[in-house]
Amino acid sequence: MKTLDxxxxxxVVGAGTAGCIVANRISADPKSRVLLLEAGSTDNWIWFHxxxxxxxxxxxxxxxxxxxxxxxAGLNGRSLAYPRGKVIGGSSAINAMISMRGQAADxxxxxxxxxxxxxxxxxxxxxxxxxxxxxxxxxxxxxxxxWRIEAPxxxxxxxxxxxxxxxxxxxxxxxxxxxxxxxxVGYFHVNQKFGRRxxxxxxxxxxxxxxxxxxxxxxxxxxxxxxxxxxxxxxRFRQGADFxxxxxxxxxxxxxxxxxxVQVMQRSGIGPGEWLRxxxxxxxxxRQGVGRNLQDHLQQRAIYKVHGIRTLNETYHSLWRRAAMGxxxxxxxxxxxxxxxxxxxxxxxxxxxxxxxNIQFHIxxxxxxxxxxxxxxxxxxxxxxxxxxxxxxxxxxxxAASPDAAPAISPNYLSTVEDKQVAADAIRVTRRLMRQxxxxxxxxxxxxxxxxxxxxxxxxxxxxxxxxxxxxxPVGTAKMGLASDPLAVVDERLRVRGLAGLRVIDASIMPTIxxxxxxxxxxxxxxxxxxxxxxxxxxx
Length: 540
Prior knowledge:
540 residues, alpha/beta, 26 strands
């Protein structure tokens, strides 16, 4: 066993959305020596920077862990690809770039669970500190931070028509989803700068790489934690053919995400004892919540053919139009190459009994059978609705003690009566949206799930299982909670309960999923978590 040269106060595992921010903030103290470990490589590939590059990055072993779920009963036996970023910047280097905080009530609920310091008024300053927002400094937004947020650099007439249709249903138009109440229809704001993707690595890691007290090691795979006398004192990782140890004088901080952080803990003997013993792993801490409480957003991808209006489908299949797209991007940094996967958003209620928006639409001027397939040749749009606050809960389990073994990912989609009902109602809302007068000049024609699918609950729930797919928002697998919560893994300052010297700072600590895309909330968690680390160091 080799030992990495150098002395470190903190070892941060994972240079993704959270890890880049944590490393930035902690290394701002020149007395703190920080080692940042990343399994992927640097982002020196053009498709990490051109926004439409997610089409090439997802499903590519250069940039994606290539996880898959177990066959899901709620999806009628289907298994889904489960992309996670494997590069500095993590999933922020391959994701949808959508800037979305969720709803104030999400965080007030966390505070109501007894988690002091996590209500909306508590997290808003962290959101604002992170931002460099095109709307300028205000009560809602900040400027000067590393997280650049801009308006989209193109629009589509067909999406404008969908926006008008939503307004005809009584959904208000909104210029900003991020003021605490995201109910409405509007274009998503995006993590871009002048038409280029703005990942966590670009915003927070690269500007501080010259700091003498920050060291970054890429292409290293974290194996397990080093635990001595009830305290985590370092990390063992694989570098090439060698296993190497790095010691931390103060803390090890897991920022490897809802899948990666769980894998490292379970391989280290931290997790449900019965799971670990079945794999021959010595149980260091029987913590039942490690790998449980998995939550994710499942969307129902409805597709509608349209007529007499342009979509990306036919644009993509025209060679001269494709050339024009490339030229527009090269000259002006505009056009379809700047597109996020979804452009128009709608937040609304699946039925009138809901007290706030509980479904989100991602609307795209394109269609395809499944991600990675070519676009259809007929003009069409995708109208995908997801349940923002699912009640289904899944698991992440390692399948072997080896770091090379893929985990068993079981989201358990549509396993509750409530989730099946919301899925059915969401398809009904989709159909009502497409019947609005604003869209009738374009004669929308349901292609998926298809006109043969009835409007009764059973038919729609089955259709949801047939067409449902993840939006890649796994959270909650190392949840934050009170000591009285049997599934709580970390406390309100993100310290692992029952083990000194270990903190988890990433999306896995969410007790309940936020009402929207989860990348921006993960950045906020990193901002607050790093502040906890520095504050505890000052008190020590």
